[in-house]
């Protein structure tokens, strides 16, 4: 029955109809994001945004790290879910796309909770290790190039608090088999194998959007 449900072309419509709708600020940012030429491959869906906000609250996160800002839709979802003095540190390699989200962050009243860093993800993660130390980050959301996913995961695992959560988006992206040597495809294969076989963690891959993997440190 599960396979039949996942194969249904009406699944996304069904999910959308049974998910609480966005407010005007989120909807406006998502619509602006959808108009961009790169949006199809990079945007976070409303359902993913709702899940991220819920995970921030469920984990009682106070410090969140996001690898891959794009237009800041997911940043906004998570920042809103943080407590008043919580902090979201988000990074991207370009300031172009996050600039679209900044006005919406301000409009939502959470701009002061968001620390945007324009730099390569590995450099930001290394800097966070120096600033915060190991085992200090409550939730880490990775939604960046899959060629670097394994490296981001290893750095995130070091930063993650004992009861923290790593959330990785895009883990069910298309794979055309062994002949597909696209760097992102190869990187995603490596990441999925690494996490599946890693005795240091417990994980679950959820068939939401293009795949979301939840990871926590093993007891």
UniProtKB/TrEMBL annotation:
Record lineage: Bacteria, Bacillati, Actinomycetota, Actinomycetes, Pseudonocardiales
Taxonomy, superkingdom: Bacteria
Stored SUPFAM superfamilies: S-adenosyl-L-methionine-dependent methyltransferases
Name of the protein in its database record: SAM-dependent methyltransferase
Species of origin: Amycolatopsis balhimycina DSM 5908
Keyword Iron-sulfur tagged: no
Biological process terms in GO annotation: methylation
Annotated keywords: Methyltransferase, S-adenosyl-L-methionine, Transferase
Coiled-coil ranges from the UniProt annotation: none
Gene Ontology MF terms: O-methyltransferase activity; S-adenosylmethionine-dependent methyltransferase activity
């Amino acid at each position: 029955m599960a396979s039949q449900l996942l194969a249904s072309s009406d699944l996304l419509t069904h999910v959308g109809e049974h998910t609480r709708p966005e407010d005007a600020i989120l909807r406006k940012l998502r619509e602006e994001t959808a108009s961009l030429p790169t949006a199809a491959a990079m945007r976070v869906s409303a359902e993913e945004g709702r899940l991220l906000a819920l995970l921030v609250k469920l984990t009682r996160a106070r410090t969140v790290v996001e690898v891959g800002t794009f237009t800041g839709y997911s940043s906004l979802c998570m920042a809103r879910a943080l407590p008043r003095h919580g902090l979201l540190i988000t990074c991207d390699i370009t300031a172009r796309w996050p600039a679209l989200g900044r006005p919406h962050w301000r409009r939502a009243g959470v701009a002061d909770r968001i620390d945007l860093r324009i730099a390569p993800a590995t450099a930001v993660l290394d800097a966070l290790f120096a600033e915060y130390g190991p085992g200090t980050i409550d939730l880490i959301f990775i939604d960046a190039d899959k060629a670097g996913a394994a490296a981001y995961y290893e750095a995130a695992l070091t930063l993650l608090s004992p009861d923290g959560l790593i959330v990785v988006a895009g883990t069910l992206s298309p794979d055309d088999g062994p002949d597909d040597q696209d760097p992102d495809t190869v990187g995603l294969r490596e990441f999925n194998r690494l996490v599946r076989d890693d005795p240091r963690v417990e994980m679950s891959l959820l068939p939401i959007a293009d795949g979301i993997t939840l990871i926590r440190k093993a007891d």
